[in-house]
Amino acid sequence: MKLGILRFEEGFFPRIWGGRKLADHFGKPLPPDRLIGEAWLIADHAVHESVVAEGPHSGRTLHHLVQHFPSALFGRLASPTPFGRFPLLLKLLDAREALSVQVHPDDSCAADLGEPDTGKTEMWYVLNADPMSELICGLDNRLDRETFVKSVAEDTLARHLKRHPVEKGTAVFVPAGIVHALGAGVVLAEIQQNSDLTYRIYDWGRTESDGKPRELHVDKATAAIHFGATHPGPVRPLYYERGNARRAILAACPYFAAERVEWQGLVECRTRGDSFHIILAAEGALTLDGINLQPGEAAIVPAEYSTFTISGMGVLLDYYIPDFDCDIRQPLLEAGHPAGMIDAVMAGGR
Q1: Which CATH architecture has domain 11-224?
Q2: Is 107 helix (H, G, I), strand (E, B) or coil?
Q3: How far, in Å, are 172, 232, 262, 276, 282 from residue 168 at the CA level?
Q4: CA 190 to CA 196: how far, in whole Å?
Q5: Average pLDDT, stretch 174-181?
Q6: What confidence tens digit (pLDDT) does each residue in 194-209 have?
Q7: What homologous superfamily does CATH list for 238-346?
Q8: Fewer Cβ atoms within 10 Å of its own Cβ: the N or the C terminal residue of the chain?
Q9: Residue 202 contacts residue 225 (beta carbons within 8 Å)
Q10: 172 sits in which H/E element
Q11: DSSP string covering 253-289
Q12: H or E stretch including 246?
C-alpha cells in the first residue's frame, strides 16, 4: 500500500510580532483573540509533530511515517536528520511587527554548542507584503567579530544591517550564519532545515508581557555568525519550461531545492524515486493527484510516486532534495542559462 499524498493538520503559534493575516488571506482557523506569527504546515519536531489529516494514515504523525516507511517517503537522495526526524520544516509567517535581528547556527556550530537540533538554513518566499516592506539580510562587510560585539554593547548594530525592499514574489535564501530579520507587514512561506535554533541579537527595545526585555543570545550568536560572508539579498530566479509549466529555480543547496512553478491545465511532475516533494499552493487552487489544495495549503508527495499530476491554474512552490545535475544543471543549460549563473543558484541562490 502506497503512503498516498500526505496532508497534515496545521499548528498555530502565537508570537509577540504576529498578527491575523493568516486568517484574512488564507482562511486559517486561528485561535480567537491571539496574535499568530507562525503556522507550521509540515513539521516533525519536538515542538510540534504534524498529524496526517486524511487517508489511510489519518491520525498518525509524520514522525511515525519517518520511522516506519522511510524508503517510500525519502527515496534515493533524502534521509532523516541525525536525530531521526524528517529533514525539512515548512511554515507560514505573518509579521505584523518586525522580527528580532537574529542568526541561526550551521550544523557544525550547533554540534559544538551542544544543541539538540541541527543547524538551520532557510529560504523565504513572500506571499503578501504591505507597501514599503523590507527585510534585513547580512551585515556590513567591514564588520568583524570585535566590532560586532562592540556595536551590540553600544546599541549601534542597526546602522550595520543590510536592508532590502520586498514585494509579493520576492525570494530570499538565508544560509546559516547570516544575520537577518523579517520586516513588518510581510507574510511569507519559509522552508528550512528541521531545526528550532534561533539566536536573538537585537529586538528593537521590545519587552515581554511582564515588561522585561526579551532574552538575547549574543554569545551564541557571535559564535554562529559567518563574519565576512556576503549576501546579495533577494535571489535572481532562473527560468525554464516543462510541459504546461514555467518553472523558476529559486535556490538549490544540499538541504533543499526550491522552485516556483506557474502552470495552467494539467502538469505531470517527476520524482524519479529520488526525493519526496513538498507542494505549497501559493496562488490559485490546485488538484494534486486528486487532492485539493487551497492557497496556503501544503502536502507531501512521497518519493515512491515516480510521477504525479497537478491540475488547475496558478502558482505553487515545490521543495525537494535535489540531484544537482538532473534537477538543476541540465534543465537550466537546456534553457540557455550561462554556467556561471547556474553555479550561483546551485550555491544556494547566490
Answers
A1: Sandwich (2.60)
A2: helix
A3: 12, 18, 14, 27, 11
A4: 13
A5: 97
A6: 999 999 999 999 988 8
A7: Jelly Rolls (2.60.120.10)
A8: N
A9: no
A10: strand 171-174
A11: -SS-EEEEEEEEEEEEEE-TTT--EEEEEEES-EEET
A12: strand 245-252
| Chain position carrying cell 549563473 | 341
CA dihedral sign, ordered 107, 343, 73, 194: positive
Please say whether the dihedral angle defined by the alpha carbons of residues 198, 200, 203 and 208, taken in this order, is positive or negative: positive
Enter the C-alpha cell of residue 291: 487532492
Are 178 and 231 a contacting pair, CB within 8 Å? yes
Residues involved in catalysis: 200
CB atoms < 10 A from the CB of 42, how many?
A: 24
The helix or strand, by DSSP H or E, that contains position 65, with its residue range, turns out to be helix 62-68
Q: What is the largest CA-CA distance in the chain?
A: 61
- Which residues lie closer than 8 Å to 132 by C-beta, 6 or more apart? 165, 185
| Conformational region of residue 128, where left means phi above 0, alpha means psi within -120 to 50, and beta covers everything else | beta
Show the cell assigned to 153.
554593547
pLDDT tens digits, 254-309: 999 999 999 999 999 989 999 999 999 999 999 999 999 999 999 999 999 989 99
* Extended strands (E) in 20-148: 36-42, 88-95, 101-103, 122-129, 134-139
What residue spans define the domains of the chain? 11-224, 238-346
Confidence class for position 232, pLDDT limits 50, 70, 90: confident
Closest CA to 279 of 248, 315, 253: 315
The separation between CA 336 and the C-alpha centre of its own chain, rounded to angstroms, equals 28
Angle, alpha carbons 27-62-349 (nearest 5°): 70
What sign results for the dihedral spanned by CA atoms 117, 18, 9, 307?
A: negative
What's the distance, Cα to Cα, between the start and end of the chain in Å? Answer: 41
The residues pairing with 240 across neighbouring beta strands, listed in sequence order, are 247
The fraction of the chain above a pLDDT of 90, given in percent, is: 90
Q: Is the pTM of this model over 0.85?
A: yes
- The cell for 342 is 547556474
Least Cα distance to 25 among 116, 113, 105, 94 occurs for 94
